[in-house]
Amino acid sequence: MMKRKVIKHNYFSIYAELFDYFASDPLDQFYAIDEIANNSNHPLCKTLNENLQELPDVIVKDVMKDKKFNFLYGDAKDRNYRARIFTFIKRLDYLIPSTRINLLKSQSSVDRPQPYSHSVLKYLELMDDYLVPLSDFEIQGSALFRRGFGFNILLPLPSRNSGYWFTQALCKRESMMNTKVRLDPLIIRERDQYPLMGYRMLCYGRGLDWARLNKLKEEEHGRWLSDKLYGRSVQFTDFVWSPRNNEIHFQCEELPKYEDIEIRGSRYLHGIYKPSEEEFVHIDAAVRIYDTAEFDARQKQHLRKIGKLGVRAKIFQIDGSISQQQFCNIASSFFVWNEDVEQYFSGN
Length: 348
Prior knowledge:
Layout: E1 6-9, E2 12-15, H1 16-23, H2 29-37, H3 45-53, H4 57-63, H5 67-73, H6 79-105, E3 132-133, E4 138-140, E5 143-146, E6 149-152, H7 164-171, E7 179-181, E8 189-190, H8 210-213, E9 220-224, E10 234-244, E11 247-256, E12 266-274, E13 279-289, H9 292-299, E14 311-322, H10 324-334, H11 339-345
């Protein structure tokens, strides 16, 4: 009997083929796991149920005391089985985004980091920061299709839909010829196995006080400390407008909590605004990944003073004419769920 390849984390082992399947899924595993576990015709049904049964009983019993678990499954007749699925999902919720972060940290050590070694991408020319032209893909929702396979723009957060809204904003521009994106290293599916999703949310900006910004002579900066629901996972958000010659550079960074730096980086956005034209000529977005020492240094300084710190993985870049409205829409959608940023770009 061939020995299974496993991935281990804190007394928990997941079969590598299951990890690869769920990591490549553009939807959260919460939606797929029941369908697989209860469908004997699914090729991974037996494998998944075997893995679930191997979970240590002591961990499963602890999960059955969890408040969230009991809220969802307190009255379920198959509580033990539900606890095993709940445990499995919680481990994947850590393992998948932490694997993504580790791949981004090591991106400079290989010529073509994932997913660019894939057969349908290996001849695609990589630009600086591992970006590729968005126009080289057919776009549906947040899916980027090429030669029978679906990909995704690099996710800035662990949530699988965290890139949905800014992908929509990028695609609403009249031309995508000057838009370049970084592909996510994990999300790859054959087209007929790539689930398409649609989400509804009011996510746009109505503009700032541009008349005042057009006359800006000195740096303008701020920091938001959010106490909203999503803000519980955010340390703070910094922004700064910096006049430089005939341009104004905008920077904004959302720093995560220290306990989350193994599964996510900070969301970072940069734009170059020309007051004389009343439009932007450049936007780029990235995730900044900090280790413990870098995080400690970062939280002691405002964004405008830190310089180059941490590992940066660029997500997208746009060069050319970008209107004030387009910039606000892209900024709001990139920082989706950050109410401080969304309110700022709506003029509140």
